[in-house]
């Protein structure tokens, strides 16, 4: 099949996936479609026990190292308003972040690698991951942790993944180090003695204390973290009282902290907890702080970032400097297991992701396929010559504490 015909077939697959979005943990039709396409190309699918999503495997003619490629597959609960001829047919849901784009890139790479498997020394596992967007709990962790907990990736020595992004169509955006935000949540309950609003000296004003806590928390980023490191703390929810003339006995606030540097993550927590507790004490009230560690920052390995730039150039692809943003991305869990690289693929002026008008240009997909295919071949060749020494231990379940 010529590249143009191959690209056309991928675009047809992409449009089908775009028309049939499914939410996290419910990607049954999507999984079945991916399975059929892979099996039609003779690609083996591992028995992982996953309810949705799957892991395919391409076995080279010779034994060797094991690497993995990843595409995510879930959609979002958003009503699409793009006007595309292949718009969502699933009312109330759309691929509003481009996971249809990402999974098609991984699908294309799997097909390409299967076609040249006789030239490979080693194994490539291709992850079609569910629930990247899902709200993670200990009982039902994020999709990356679910896949890792199957044990199917225990032998993987390097992970590679892509995601669509605003930018020049087909360009490869690469950055070493932290590229996404560690996703941490806090919940604070302030308690005191309620009283009549006309007699504040007979009780405690938890609302004033909560307001002071909100203001003081803003110094966590501005005064406790390195100013050149991307980070943000946002209080997103406040509740207190239920009438106009009573000072309540409790106030509740919650929010999130996002950091890209590992050290900053712990510093932010420690500083925030001290601020909350000491501010509450200054106002004569009590404060209980609960802290929840979610997915870490995607931490691209500098070596594989350099390799990625070289491979892109050799493959005739344009490269651009990548960037860090503070949105969460659970590919980070794979990079906690072994080093690797997560790149962005330019998809034009996409409008804001997680919005009803989000529409990446699918003509960037073939660049992603070429990049993943080429870096997979290079990684197998390189790892056949060296033994990696910088693997990291896996977080086996959703991280809720350090």
Question: Would you mind describing this structure in some detail?
Answer:
With 402 residues, the chain is an alpha/beta fold. It folds into 2 domains: 267 residues, Zn peptidases (Aminopeptidase), CATH 3.40.630; 112 residues, Alpha-Beta Plaits (2-Layer Sandwich), CATH 3.30.70. It contains 10 helices and 16 strands. The strands form 4 sheets. Strands 1-2-4-3-5-16-6-15 form an 8-stranded mixed beta sheet, with helices on both faces. The chain has a 4-stranded antiparallel beta sheet with strand order 10-12-8-13. The protein has a two-stranded antiparallel ribbon with strand order 7-14. The N and C termini lie far apart (50 Å). The relative contact order is 0.18. The C terminus is likely disordered.
SSE topology sketch:
Blueprint: H1 3-19, H2 28-40, E1 44-45, E2 54-59, E3 62-72, H3 99-115, E4 121-129, H4 143-149, E5 158-165, E6 172-174, E7 177-178, E8 182-191, E9 195-196, H5 206-217, H6 219-224, E10 231-240, E11 246-247, E12 250-259, H7 262-282, E13 286-293, E14 299-300, H8 302-314, E15 319-321, H9 332-337, E16 340-346, H10 365-385
Parallel strand pairs: 3-4, 3-5, 5-16, 6-15
Antiparallel strand pairs: 1-2, 2-4, 6-16, 7-14, 8-12, 8-13, 9-11, 10-12
Helix pairs in contact: 1-3, 3-10, 5-7, 8-10
GO molecular function: metal ion binding; N-acetyldiaminopimelate deacetylase activity
Domain Peptidase M20 dimerisation: 186-282
Cofactor: Mn(2+)
């Amino acid at each position: 099949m010529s590249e143009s015909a191959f690209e056309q077939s991928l675009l047809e697959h992409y449009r089908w996936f775009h028309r049939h979005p499914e939410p996290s943990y419910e990607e049954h039709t999507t999984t079945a479609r991916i399975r059929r396409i892979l099996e039609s190309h003779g690609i083996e699918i591992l028995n992982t026990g996953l309810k949705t999503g799957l892991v395919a495997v391409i076995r080279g003619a010779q034994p060797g190292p094991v690497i993995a490629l990843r595409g995510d597959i879930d959609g979002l609960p958003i009503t699409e308003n793009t006007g595309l001829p292949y718009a969502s047919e699933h009312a109330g849901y759309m691929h509003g972040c481009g996971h249809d784009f990402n999974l098609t890139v991984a699908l294309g790479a799997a097909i390409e690698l299967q076609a040249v498997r006789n030239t490979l020394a080693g194994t490539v596992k291709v992850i079609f991951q569910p629930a990247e967007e899902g709200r993670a709990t200990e009982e039902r962790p994020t999709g990356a942790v679910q896949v890792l907990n199957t044990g199917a990736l225990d032998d993987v020595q390097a992970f590679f993944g892509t995601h669509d992004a605003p930018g020049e169509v087909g360009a490869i955006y690469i950055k070493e180090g932290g590229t996404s935000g560690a996703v941490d949540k806090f919940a604070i309950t302030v308690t005191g003695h309620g009283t009549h609003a006309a007699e504040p000296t007979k009780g405690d004003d938890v609302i004033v204390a909560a307001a002071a806590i909100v203001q003081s928390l803003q110094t966590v980023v501005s005064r406790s973290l390195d100013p050149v490191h991307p980070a943000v703390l946002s209080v997103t929810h406040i509740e207190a009282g239920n009438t106009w003339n009573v000072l309540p006995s409790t106030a509740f606030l919650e929010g999130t902290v996002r950091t890209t540097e590992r050290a900053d993550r712990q510093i932010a927590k420690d500083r925030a907890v001290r601020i909350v507790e000491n501010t509450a004490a200054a106002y004569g009230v009590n404060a209980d702080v609960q802290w929840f560690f979610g997915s870490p920052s995607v931490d691209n390995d500098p070596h594989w970032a350099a390799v990625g730039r070289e491979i892109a150039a050799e493959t005739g692809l344009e490269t651009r400097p990548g960037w860090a943003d503070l949105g969460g991305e659970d590919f980070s869990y794979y990079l906690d297991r072994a080093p690797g690289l997560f790149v962005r693929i330019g998809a034009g002026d996409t409008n804001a992701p997680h919005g009803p008008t989000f529409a990446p240009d699918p003509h960037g997909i073939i660049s992603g396929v070429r990049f993943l295919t080429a870096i997979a071949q290079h990684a197998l060749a390189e790892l056949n010559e060296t033994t990696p020494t910088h693997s990291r231990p896996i977080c086996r379940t959703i991280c809720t504490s350090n």
